[in-house]
Write a structure and sequence with these properties.
This protein is of the alpha+beta class. The chain has 14 helices and 20 strands.
């Protein structure tokens, strides 16, 4: 068993000059009315070009480089920590604290992960670990997921320090590792277990929602995400005595598993709206074409399966996913030889479970749907922890509306629930309400996150930087 003893590193002032020197030259910024944009571009470039893949990169190096910039901006070394297990020296997270004026006021957590999905140079049009600006877009691995937000949050803390901003509430920045490879190691889960005070907060801002550009490139929808589905895999397995393939028998493991998967495939979990998904479909019904709008209004009025839910599913599978828990077969393996009856058949069923629904309840439902007591079903890994949807209060929404109106006056604010997974699942389960809020807009093609030639529109990044800086400033001055 590997050691999980914590490794804590506090940074000394001489580290600043070393790391800023090691970061190397940066490209000159384009002309901008914002005098701080050049410094932000340099920070963003350094972070993006720091390889943080699990195979060959180092989150620790990225954390050290961002720590150096915070130290140079005047954040005391005592308020900066690098934390991670001693046996994972390349996966340390950075926590940096800008202390508030009111020690009794609850902290705000600013969360972003710096690890990225693997990327092979031979597959990409451009070097995935060199920041390229081309035709109004930045290209490189991590330019969107999630180094855009990591850079924006770090830059905001630096600017608060440089301008002498004294927040009433403490702001805590956490740049974490392992969000993309949680099955190997996830630093948010580790920190909550070993250093819970490092992430303790009244609420957290995280990735999870952005903005949508219309066909003409104009901002049309700004999202704020509250709650997310829970990821859980289930293993299905059946075994029997097998035998020679020349002597078939009715009890064939492959046929039985296939039949069970077919029954799971046609089963639909019941519809279950929550306050966030209700608000989402109410807002979307004013933005989408009439056929989709009519279907949404029907579902909102009577949330049961029927032609309206079928229409929404056909138009956008993501809409169906927001309405219910979903489970789908993703992997199958069976048999041991081409001339033998199968002795064993296995399948993986991946579920995305609505907030607040128990894992055991979903497992029992799948068992009933299979209708075959000879097939075992078990959770893969530790069962996920579910949590209720965080409330979207006026205190959360009003600052977003205020700043969004000044930057994107025509955009509609739409609450949303994530159907994928972020590190917010760990924080919500730990009692820290977590909201996805980035202000980063994408066109219909998207960011190519996790794929080839990941990208983000330059204007979107600069607008998101302005948006989050101002929204966080308002949050930081609120009373609990």
């Amino acid at each position: 068993m590997k050691s999980t003893a914590p490794c804590r590193l506090r940074l000394a002032a001489p580290f600043v000059a070393l790391m800023l020197f090691a970061s190397g030259p940066v490209q000159a910024a384009t002309h901008s009315a914002d005098p701080g944009e050049a410094a932000f571009r340099a920070l963003y470039k350094e972070l993006v070009e720091t390889n943080t893949t699990l195979s060959a990169g180092s989150c620790t190096l990225a954390s050290e480089r961002m720590a150096a910039r915070l130290l140079a901006a005047g954040l005391p070394a005592a308020d900066i920590e690098l934390l991670g297990p001693a046996d994972r020296p390349k996966e340390k997270s950075l926590t940096a604290t800008l202390r508030g004026r009111d020690p009794k006021a609850a902290t705000i957590l600013l969360l972003a992960h710096v690890d990225v999905v693997e990327a092979r140079r031979e597959d990409w049009q451009r070097d995935p670990f060199t920041l390229v600006e081309e035709n109004g877009f930045f290209y490189a691995r991590g330019v969107s997921d999630d180094k855009a937000m990591a850079a924006v949050l770090t830059d905001s803390l630096i600017r608060y320090l440089q301008t002498g901003f004294k927040p009433r509430r403490t702001l805590k920045l956490a740049l974490t590792c392992g969000e993309e490879t949680a099955d190997s190691f996830n630093s948010v889960a580790w920190l909550l277990k070993h250093h819970p005070d490092a992430l303790k907060a009244a609420f957290a801002l995280n990735e999870g929602a952005g903005g949508e550009l219309d066909a003409d490139g104009r901002p049309s929808v700004l999202q704020i995400q509250a709650g997310e589905k829970v990821y859980q895999d289930f293993a299905l397995e059946i075994s029997n005595g097998g035998g020679h393939s020349s002597r078939p028998v009715p009890d064939n493991a492959i046929y039985r598993l296939s039949a069970a998967l077919g029954r799971i495939g046609v089963y639909q979990f019941p519809l279950a709206l929550n306050p966030v998904t209700t608000a989402y479909f109410q807002a979307q019904s004013n933005l989408v074409p009439k056929d989709a709008a009519d279907a949404m209004k029907t579902v909102l009025a009577q949330p049961v399966d029927g032609p309206a839910t079928a229409a929404l599913w056909a138009l956008n599978p993501g809409w169906n996913s927001m309405l219910r828990t979903t489970c789908v077969a993703t992997q199958v393996s069976a048999g041991h030889a081409p001339n033998a009856l199968p002795q064993r058949a296995r399948a993986n069923v991946n579920c995305r479970i609505l907030p607040g629904v128990a894992i055991a309840e979903v497992q029992a439902t799948l068992k009933r749907a299979m209708a075959d007591d000879g097939i075992g079903i078990s959770t893969v890994g530790e069962p996920a922890v579910t949590a209720p949807v965080p409330p979207l209060t006026a205190a959360m929404l009003d600052p977003v509306k205020k700043i969004a109106k000044t930057i994107w006056p025509a955009a509609t604010l739409v609450p949303t629930m994530a159907t994928g997974a972020t590190d917010g699942r760990f924080l919500n389960a730990a009692g820290i309400p977590t909201y996805g809020l980035t202000g980063l807009f994408h066109d219909a093609e998207g960011s190519h996150a996790h794929g080839l030639d990941e990208r983000i529109r330059v204007q979107s990044l600069m607008d998101g930087r302005r948006f989050l800086h101002e929204v966080i400033r308002i949050y930081a001055m609120q009373r609990d």
